[in-house]
UniProtKB/TrEMBL annotation:
GO process annotations (BP): chromosome segregation
TM annotation in the entry: none
Naturally occurring in which organism (per UniProt): Pseudorhodobacter turbinis
PANTHER family xrefs: CHROMOSOME-PARTITIONING PROTEIN PARB-RELATED (PTHR33375)
Pfam families: ParB_N (PF02195)
Protein name: Replication protein
């Protein structure tokens, strides 16, 4: 029996549609992430996500740590320069570490500072150094402390004047650096006298905590930024302060020329200092002009009143029967001198601009009041 051959129809594609393939090995195409993850399973996917999260977290922690380190270094730098400012209680600030170059007593410009702080606040913070016990030592700003203390006493407003803005300096600065900071700040002030500068040099040299024991060398160290001539003037005032500082009430009012003349005679003229001491002994109510007149006479200078003054020239014995005082005013200090037959008020104001009738009424009221 013979087998039958089956026949099938085969459709071949046209030559133009036939695809050709390279014999080279072809890399498999990347599969979608979802497909890969589904193949790895949920546990493998969770492990991968956790590792990525840990790497991101470590990078974030490292970034935050670097920023904190940078802020810490910047804080230290600013603190060393006294640029970190805070409000500090007045009673937490000590003023004993440094000898001040401002003399104690009436300060006619303190009233202006008080008025300025009352009106617009404090524009320039003080500088302090923090102590180990948590209190602070004043480095700069003695007059500002005085002004705040006065305002607190006058107003009782502890919220406004019980604390003062202060730049906090890092501990450990050398003592002579702290002195230089204080001195350099006050050197720009025109009202600080040569006698005040000489007094600071004397007390700096006497301080056992400093390395200098000679006041002349203290001048060179403290006033390094001052001119040579100014340092020379300060040294000339040292013997005046040393020998006459206790007897003179107004040594800070002694002008440069008079101070230099006194300095040259202190060691040259025998008995010079005792003679001045005897002249001023017991004369407690003398004025600034009274004292300067005596000093000029001993120094060989003028003893007459300044040109243009209507005050009569009187001997020292008669001048002792005087009373002098000062009154703080917005215009400055009103210097008052009362003597035999006269009452003098000196103030930086043009009284000729005041209406005559108003001025006359004021004087009449004053005379009626004092009887």
């Amino acid at each position: 029996m013979s087998k039958k051959r089956r026949m099938f129809d085969i459709d071949l594609p046209d030559e133009d549609t036939v695809e050709t393939f390279s014999a080279e090995k072809v890399a498999p195409t990347a599969k979608p992430r979802a497909a890969t993850e589904s193949r790895r399973g949920p546990m493998a996917a969770a492990i991968t996500e956790n590792a990525d999260s840990l790497r991101d977290r470590e990078a974030l922690v490292a970034k935050i740590r670097a920023e904190n380190d940078a802020l810490a270094h910047e804080h230290v730098r600013l603190k060393q320069q006294g640029l970190i400012v805070d409000l500090i209680d007045l009673d937490m600030i000590e003023t004993r570490k440094l000898t001040r170059d401002r003399h104690a007593g009436f300060d006619e410009e303190l009233g202006e500072l008080v008025d300025s702080i009352r009106d617009v606040g404090l524009s320039n913070p003080i500088r302090v150094e923090q102590r180990p016990d948590g209190r602070y030592e004043l480095i700069q700003g003695f007059r500002r402390i005085q002004a705040f203390t006065q305002l607190l006493a006058e107003t009782g407003d502890a919220e406004a004047y019980g604390k003062i803005p202060a730049g906090i300096m890092a501990r450990g600065a050398e003592l002579d650096v702290l002195y230089r900071r204080m001195v350099d700040e006050n050197l720009v002030r025109k009202d600080i006298s040569l006698a005040e500068m000489a007094q600071l040099a004397i007390e700096y040299a006497a301080d056992p905590m400093t390395e200098v024991s000679d006041p002349d060398k203290a001048v060179a160290k403290l006033y390094k930024s001052a001119s040579y001539s100014k340092r020379s003037y300060i040294r000339s005032f040292i013997p005046v302060v040393k020998r006459l500082g206790e007897v003179l009430h107004f040594i800070h009012e002694v002008p440069r020329a008079l101070g230099l003349a006194l300095s040259s005679k202190i060691d040259e003229v025998p008995g010079f200092v005792p003679a001045i001491q005897a002249e001023l002994a017991g004369w407690d109510n003398r004025s600034i002009e009274d004292e300067l007149s005596v000093l000029r006479r001993f120094a060989g200078g003028e003893t007459e009143p300044k040109s243009g003054s209507t005050r009569p020239s009187k001997p020292a014995a008669e001048a002792k029967a005087k009373t002098s005082f000062q009154i703080a005013r917005p215009e400055g200090a009103a210097k008052c001198v009362a003597g035999a037959g006269r009452l003098e008020i000196r103030l930086d104001r043009d009284f000729s601009t005041i209406d005559r009738r108003k001025l006359e009424a004021a004087v009449r009221g004053l005379l009626d009041e004092i009887g």
